[in-house]
Write a structure and sequence with these properties.
This protein folds into 2 domains: 232 residues, NAD(P)-binding Rossmann-like Domain (Rossmann fold, 3-Layer(aba) Sandwich); 134 residues, no CATH class. Helix 1 crosses helix 8 and helix 5 runs parallel beside helix 6. It contains 14 helices and 15 strands. It is 45% helix and 15% strand. By secondary structure, the chain is α/β, with parallel strands linked by helices. The structure holds NADP nicotinamide-adenine-dinucleotide phosphate. The site of NADP nicotinamide-adenine-dinucleotide phosphate has 26 residues, from helix 1, helix 5 and strand 8.
Length: 412
Amino acid sequence: MSQRVVFLTGASGFVGAEFLHRVLLREPDTSVICLVRGTSAQEAQERVVCALDQCARRASAEVKQLHSERLLIVNGDITLPRFGLSPLVYSLLQRRTTHILHAAASTRFDLRLEDARAVNVGGTMEVLRFARGCENLDRFGYVSTAYVAGDREGIVREDELDMAQGFLNTYEQSKFEAETLVRETMAADLPRTVIFRPSIIVGDSRDGRTTSFNVLYCPMRIYGLGVIKTLPGKPWVRLDVVPINYVVDAIQQIFLDETAVGRTFHLVAGPERSMSLQALVDKFVQIYNNHFSSRGLVRRLAVPEIVGENEGRALLDQSIESMPTGQARNLFEMFRFFVPYTQKDKMFDDRSTRRILAERGIEPPPFANYMHRVLSYCFETRWGQKPQKRQSLEAEVWLEEELERIFSPLPI
Ligand SMILES: NC(=O)c1ccc[n+]([C@@H]2O[C@H](COP(=O)([O-])OP(=O)(O)OC[C@H]3O[C@@H](n4cnc5c(N)ncnc54)[C@H](OP(=O)(O)O)[C@@H]3O)[C@@H](O)[C@H]2O)c1
């Protein structure tokens, strides 16, 4: 094995897989041990290979070559004592590990607090326990979220955490508690810790590719159907959106930087590049109409009216109540969790991140500059249903099929 050995959690997920892919491509002296859940060692292996394949712009044979040489996949669960591994394997991994990046988490907004805590706090506790026993550990990286800021408004700084805020959902609260734990451990036993806080992550700014269609994708998909005409929110509220390529580039660079040790970094668009809700909605409709009119769709999407929270929620509840159970209803239910993000105007200050990345020429692009690529990728893959491009599909047929598919109940 090579000199640097990164122990990575979350490699089957959106951020973890992209990070893994970057490291394998760009750091020839780094080996990676991935802790991944599976019903068997083979299934865990296959899940990572599949996630890597989806990230790859290269032929998958090349990816396979990379991972066979410098990648070890271990079947384990962060919520179990010793990750469910034997004492021998656990201590062998501890001896090998020089760096840890803990990216695994439950990212669902709708879990009960105790379930979110079990993964996000309990799992982080287990990873910290593992880290404390790594005799050669040089760095502990933890992927938090900018939304540990909860219901705060105004400027949120990178060095702030507990400001007596409330939380918009159990995800935010459990991630806040987990980051608190990481900071306490950093102060006591693990000084060589770096904390990363991304905001809302979307697909790659160069081609829109993504493996995750959550968070912002959910309202964009719903509004694209043209069946609801209002949006609860405040037009001036800023939404901070970053592309996955910026997030993993930033993690890769900052993680190894000596000056980053002991600090927290916002991986965000930042105050000047965040987009107001109104600007985002306008741009979305413009891109949507351009995309489909150039493919023959006659019907044009209207800009939804942004209305007050109570009125918007009541209309949303009415729409949900009238729906049969099925995919559409699930999508609208998920949308409920997004609504609070259109109410609180906050901006994430990212001066530490900018300073450290400036000399490397890495900066977050404004969402308005690459939103068309993100959306095209959604349209062409039917929101992740089809990995292949389907440019030949007639726009009318596309919309009809989209409506039919998501409004018909799921098969039992
Ligand atoms: N996506 C965003 O917009 C965003 C924004 C800010 C911060 N973040 C943070 O970034 C990190 C990665 O998020 P993501 O978007 O990549 O999430 P994701 O796609 O949902 O992936 C989560 C990963 O965590 C793993 N995991 C969950 N429970 C586990 C367990 N008990 N044992 C082992 N692994 C477990 C999942 O494994 P399975 O595949 O087995 O489920 C998956 O690999 C998280 O810490 C999240 O809070 C994400």
